């Protein structure tokens, strides 16, 4: 054992965890009881205890204990001990013992240990891209599942390095934000009590207990070590460097990195604050999507950290939105199923949906941004949304009881995969319609990884425990569904070209600039009269470009009825006419300029069944 010496504490004396500094390693631990905790040092890569060092008593007599030691931290790992109980540091910057994903954990209390991380890294000229919420196009993915398939086309599958190999593809698609499902360390194998050992009305087991089996947690939502990277997501043996290389590469290509964190009810605000600040400073993270109790969300929204980093939560109370509107912060956003549910209902042809749909597509309040999506990791993929009427989760081993029963999906006439041409054609059109709703709405659109080329989970809407081809993105669809991929690229590019589709302020539906036209108006069979009757499934939306500093007009006609519908055309200023630029019923949906249909002098036009059409007034 090398020499270990105590060193005088410095101004980091209140930090918890193990922090490697130039002149030693600072340890901080908050004990659960009055017993003096002990630091356990292990020989690196083993469960062999090399040294046991008691913390000095707290000078204030409280339960927080601190000390600084001088030794070569690269040769050791650590835990804490209270009495006979071994505790892995919840503030550990690295977790050792889970380097291989899915490997059964050691039964020893020393099997999982904390590791030491040195912060030295050359960030060079790295800067946060600073993408505004109206300009952002978000892409939601799971690091492991995104590239694990043999057809993913990457060498370092299922890793941070493998994700870095996909940057050219993401840029080609038009993505400038990636939102990663949990990359902090979590136990992917959760102990599971067998059915025959569960209690039956008493506290005594029905039969003798059997060895526990394990349930897989692929997604990572739940309790974890929030300061440590998931080492098994790294290709090499230095996960921190590999992750930083990935973030740096994303930033160099103008793409932000957003991380998801799911904090427990027991997580205190000081730990959460320290955690997010650590990731922001240590890993240059651009923002966080946080799941936590309401009181935590309210406190986080006011932190100085989120004047430069984005904070996404399921929802904010009204008083936070009002406060934020006064403060003028532009980095708080809500992300929930509201947009998804209303748009899915219209997509499948439900009634009484036009009114909520018209509110969703213009929603962009000053006090809080909106993250819009048609699909999320939790639920159907887009392909399954148009292929299944009900969930098919039997492979999860929970008798199909898990996952939501309310998917607002429609299988287009056949449950599951189909070779019938008319079914496949309708499903392609419906997926284009879904992307049109998403990408031509105000707010920030979020795309689910693989939807753009028909990735399917075979009707499983909750594959949290499926580390296999069910949850892995199937990249073979890039050739099979190239028509859809090309449509998504063009739709993203169209959104970026037209500021009127991504404005900084919420559309009012009024002529507040006195131009003769409101910023947004709705039309049906009569111009300027949007018909929101419960039986209607079609609506025309006209955007006046002047409100976004552009010339001309856009008219988006949504017809989700099973019959063709007639739309009235508003009269344009003298010298301007309507041109059809997009039609989702066409194989090549975006029409080249030299082939665009000219609707000169016409007062009406017809939209085919289940089709979205865009006209430009110019």
| Sheet having the most strands | 8 strands, parallel, barrel
Rounded mean pLDDT is: 93
| Amount of helix | 10-25%
Radius of gyration from CA coordinates: 27 Å
What is the total tally of β strands?
30
**Percent range for β-strand residues:** 15-25%
Count of runs of 4 or more consecutive helical residues:
13
Distance between the termini: 79 Å
What general form does the structure show?
elongated
- Structural class, from secondary structure content? alpha/beta
The strand order across the widest sheet is 11-12-17-18-19-20-21-22
Please mark out the parts with pLDDT under 50 across 5 or more consecutive residues, or reply none: 197-210
Task: List the topology elements.
Blueprint lengths: L4 E3 L9 E5 L2 E7 L7 E6 L5 E6 L9 E7 L5 E7 L2 E3 L6 E3 L16 E3 L22 E4 L1 H5 L12 H6 L1 H7 L3 E4 L3 E2 L3 E4 L20 E4 L8 E5 L9 H14 L3 E7 L6 H15 L3 E5 L2 H8 L8 E4 L4 H10 L4 E4 L2 H11 L5 H7 L8 E5 L8 H4 L35 H19 L4 E5 L28 H4 L1 H16 L22 E4 L14 E7 L8 E7 L5 E4 L9 E6 L14 E2 L4 E4 L3 E7 L1
Parallel strand pairs: 11-12, 11-22, 12-17, 17-18, 18-19, 19-20, 20-21, 21-22
Antiparallel strand pairs: 1-6, 2-3, 3-6, 4-5, 4-7, 7-8, 9-10, 13-16, 14-15, 23-24, 24-25, 25-30, 26-29, 27-28, 27-30
Commentary on this structure:
This protein has 13 helices and 30 strands. The chain is elongated and about 90 Å long. A hairpin with an 8-residue loop joins β24 and β25 (553-559). By secondary structure, it is α/β, with parallel strands linked by helices. Helix content is 20%, strand content 23%. Strands 11-12-17-18-19-20-21-22 form an 8-stranded parallel beta barrel. α8 (338-348) packs across α9, α8 runs antiparallel to α11 and α11 (421-439) packs parallel to α13 (482-497).
């Amino acid at each position: 054992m090398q020499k270990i010496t105590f060193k005088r504490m410095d101004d980091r004396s209140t930090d918890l965890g193990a922090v490697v500094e130039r002149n030693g390693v600072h340890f901080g631990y908050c004990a659960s009881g009055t017993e003096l905790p002990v630091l356990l040092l292990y020989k690196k890569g083993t469960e062999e205890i090399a040294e046991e060092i008691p913390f000095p008593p707290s000078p204030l007599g409280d339960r927080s204990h601190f000390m600084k030691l001088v030794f070569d931290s690269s040769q050791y790992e650590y835990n804490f001990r209270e009495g006979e109980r071994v505790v892995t540091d919840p503030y550990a910057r690295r977790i050792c013992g889970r380097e291989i994903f899915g490997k059964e954990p050691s039964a020893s209390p020393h099997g999982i240990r904390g590791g030491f991380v040195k912060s030295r890294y050359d960030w060079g000229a790295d800067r946060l891209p600073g993408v505004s919420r109206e300009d952002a196009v978000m892409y939601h993915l799971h690091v492991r599942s995104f590239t694990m398939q043999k057809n993913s086309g990457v060498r370092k599958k299922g890793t941070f390095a493998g994700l870095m190999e996909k940057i050219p593809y993401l840029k080609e698609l038009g993505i400038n934000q990636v939102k990663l499902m949990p990359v902090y360390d979590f136990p992917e194998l959760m102990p599971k009590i067998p059915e025959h050992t569960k209690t039956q009305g008493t506290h005594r087991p029905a039969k003798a207990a059997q060895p526990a089996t394990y349930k897989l947690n692929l997604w990572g939502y739940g309790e974890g070590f929030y300061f440590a990277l998931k080492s098994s997501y790294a290709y090499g043996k230095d996960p921190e460097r590999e992750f930083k290389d990935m973030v740096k590469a994303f930033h160099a290509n103008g793409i932000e990195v957003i991380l998801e964190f799911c904090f427990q009810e027991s997580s205190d605000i000081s730990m959460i604050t320290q955690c997010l600040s650590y990731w922001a400073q240590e890993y240059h993270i651009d923002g966080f999507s946080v799941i936590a109790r309401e009181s935590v969300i309210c406190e986080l929204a006011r932190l100085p950290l989120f004047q430069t980093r984005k904070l996404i939560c399921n929802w904010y109370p009204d008083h936070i939105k009002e406060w934020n509107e006064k403060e003028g912060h532009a980095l708080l956003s809500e992300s929930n199923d509201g947009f998804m549910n209303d748009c899915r209902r219209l997509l499948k042809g439900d009634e009484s949906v036009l009114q909520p749909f018209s509110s969703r597509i213009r929603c962009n309040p000053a006090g809080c941004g909106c993250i819009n999506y048609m699909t999320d990791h939790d639920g159907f993929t887009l392909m399954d949304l148009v292929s299944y009427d009900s969930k098919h989760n039997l492979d999860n081993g929970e008798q199909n009881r898990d996952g939501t029963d309310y998917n607002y999906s429609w299988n287009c006439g056949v449950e599951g995969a189909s070779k019938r041409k008319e079914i496949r054609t309708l499903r392609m059109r419906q997926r284009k319609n879904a992307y049109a709703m998403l990408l031509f709405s105000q707010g920030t659109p979020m795309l689910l990884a693989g939807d753009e080329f028909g990735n399917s989970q075979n009707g499983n809407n909750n594959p949290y425990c499926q580390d296999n081809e069910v949850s892995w993105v199937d990249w073979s669809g890039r050739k099979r569904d190239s028509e859809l991929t090309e449509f998504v690229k063009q739709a993203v590019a169209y959104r970026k070209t037209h500021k009127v589709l991504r404005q900084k302020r919420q559309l009012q539906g009024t002529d507040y600039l006195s131009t003769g036209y409101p910023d947004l108006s709705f039309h049906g069979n009569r111009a300027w009269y949007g018909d929101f009757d419960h039986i209607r499934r079609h609506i025309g939306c006209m955007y006046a470009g002047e409100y976004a500093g552009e010339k001309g007009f856009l008219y988006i006609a949504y017809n989700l009825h099973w019959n063709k519908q007639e739309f009235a055309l508003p009269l344009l200023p003298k010298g301007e006419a309507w041109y059809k630029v997009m039609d989702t019923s066409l194989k090549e949906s975006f029409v080249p300029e030299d082939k665009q249909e000219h609707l000169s002098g016409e007062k009406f036009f017809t939209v085919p069944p289940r089709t979205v059409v865009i006209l430009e007034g110019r």
